[in-house]
Amino acid sequence: xxxxxxxxxxxxxxxxxxxxxxxxxxxxxxxxxxxxxxxxxxxxxxxxxxxxxxxxxxxxxxxxxxxxxxxxxxxxxxxxxxxxxxxxxxxxxxxxxxxxxxxxxxxxxxxxxxxxxxxxxxxx
Length: 124
Description:
Arc Repressor Mutant, subunit A; mainly alpha
């Protein structure tokens, strides 16, 4: 481990690479082991660094990026667009009920409420 890897403020290169991967294709990450493999570090090291630098596990970080992407899609949704279920699947959520619970935990409302708020009362 180098001094820069031990510093709380400096992100190691593999962390920068991991974050790039997560933000470019969050739906393509299967689990922490998959992400660790892609950046050529051990799974435990990646878990420790995510916790140290970002305050969450890699799994939670990826899930939050996916949820953010779903929310962005709902906030820009147009009539005739994809369903909430389809949008959630596009971003890697395979079980709608679990997704909806995680969405509510993160944003304080159901995905359908976000969509209704986006459309306004005249369009719902």
